[in-house]
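Provenance and format

Records in this collection were gathered into a single text stream. Each protein contributes a sequence line and a token line. The two records reproduced below are adjacent in the stream.
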Amino acid sequence: DIPFLLVTATATTETFEVIWESLSYGCRPFWGIDVGCERPNLQYMCRTLSNASSPLLDVLNLLPMTLDDQTRLEDLSKVLFFRNTREECSELVRDLRRVLPPHLRTATHAFYSGLSEEAKDIRWDQYCKGDVKLMVSTVASAVGCNVRDIEWVVNLGITESLSGLSQRFGRAGRSPSIKSKCAVLVPSWAIRPPPETV
């Protein structure tokens, strides 16, 4: 008879049914609240990924037009990039650091499950505070991420499901006052060309 609360922002119907059955909610008093998932402060877009192995050129437009000694940390948008593997994360961090001026290179880091718990805590703390502005992450490591001021979530490549993509996009604009953008960049074969008009 100990009361407990289960909260999620992204459960699919199938997931909800598993939770319902596993916790025997049907056998005890239950109150459910579904507040929906409308996020009017998010803008969604899909673009072709030109170079899947090294997507730097596809995301350069997220950086300031001028990158030099005068560029400030505040000039960088807070971006969460998603890659599928830690190797892809590390490669994108390396490429981003190459185009940033030396004083801003520490504003870019990778985040993945292979990091120590201490390293994970330090990096998320730096990202929350704004000392890190460009975080490149695998999906496993971003579970529990509640950074409220992420301006861009960029998924590079194909996800296993739309639900998985929705989970990633759910990191953007946690504060309703922030207008955020969610972009998925996919190989050209994944985009069907528009039908020809007669």
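Adjacent record:
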Amino acid sequence: IQEKLLVFLEKSDNSESDLQQFTNFLADQHFQKEILKDFLNLLSKVSMNHQRTTYFNQKIESILDFLKNDILSNFNNCSLFNIFQHNKRVLLFLIKNKFINIDTKIYNRLTSINDFVEYFTPELITYQTKEENTANSTFEEKREKGENDDHFCQLIRNDSVKEFIDYVNQNNISIDKANIESSSFETNPLLLNSKSISLAEYAAFFGSIQIVKYLYQNDVELKPSIWLFTIHSNNKELIHFLEENDIVPNSYRLCYLEAIKCYHNDIAHYILEKFLETINKDDVYFDGLIGGYNFEFFSEDLIKED
């Protein structure tokens, strides 16, 4: 199931026939509740951590739409929220499309996380006032995109190196010291949870190799942490660039787990085969491996009785 899901999501187009083929496959599985719960957890993890192609979010939503009756008949409000509780982008879709209704418990959960409050402001106001609160189109568009809304960040994401250089010069930005400002519209966990993100790390996250190379050529230090951001880009060329320039991560084990968490399995196998001999069940990183919910790496020798 995971293999077919990733093939479907990683295709660059958004054809109706591909969707039909995948949903037909799901229908043939005749999901029981526990397997459906596993699949929704898988879907949540993939949608949060995998590299997002052009139609990535639409495909996730199409899958949820297809499963809506099964989901609503098997999960109550709270249990469904618990599955997607860290997934801002999918939670927005579930609330808007009446999979989840905001009640007192969910309202308290949403308001307990700072960057959730602004992101879900219209829904929280509606709950408070019991009157429909409609966000303006610009705000809605930024929420749907789920990325930092700063223009400078957009230039980096698009790897627009010429415009990037012009912007840096016009605004006197110190490229070796500047950091990316946080945004409540951001929905990528690594970006949300990082206290300080350099321009190089942000560029690496989106595979913007021309900007990374420009920064490196202009004596900007590429720190070991850039490996984790590069893994999120699923850009093998960028990984080889780091290797060629002797940029070494703090831990190849953490990089391996990061690749598993992102479902960038080719990169995970590459790191394992080139830099790690084994990962065994007694390893301190084992729980992180299981928590990644990536079934490709659940071999028999990684199963513990407890």
